[in-house]
Amino acid sequence: FLALELVTDRDRRTPATDLARTVINALRHQGILTSTIGRERNVLKLRSPMTLHKREADFFLSTLDDVLQRV
């Protein structure tokens, strides 16, 4: 799997727990299922299928970019 840690301050690495929750809910509405992990629940856990095609990866990255731009 791949994990993306969300923080509100890069220098202090302040966990962005609320942002992570918002992002996973927005992704879910777009048909992408993911979850949070970590002590602060601010890490997005991404589990791709065994056969990940370029169009699927592009869809995910485009959707994640859209979601992060909106929040």
How would you describe the overall organization of this protein?
- The protein is 42% helix and 23% strand.
- It has 71 residues and is an alpha+beta fold.
- The protein has a three-stranded antiparallel β-sheet with strand order 1-5-4, covered by helices on one side.
- The longest helix has 17 residues, at 54-70.
- The protein is globular, with a radius of gyration of 12 Å.
Layout of secondary structure:
Blueprint: E1 2-5, E2 7-9, E3 14-15, H1 17-29, E4 35-37, E5 43-46, H2 54-70
Antiparallel strand pairs: 1-5, 2-3, 4-5
Main beta-sheet strand count, sense and barrel state: 3 strands, antiparallel
Quaternary organization: single chain
* Low-pLDDT segments: none
**Tertiary shape:** globular
Percentage of residues in DSSP E strands: 15-25%
- The number of helices is 2
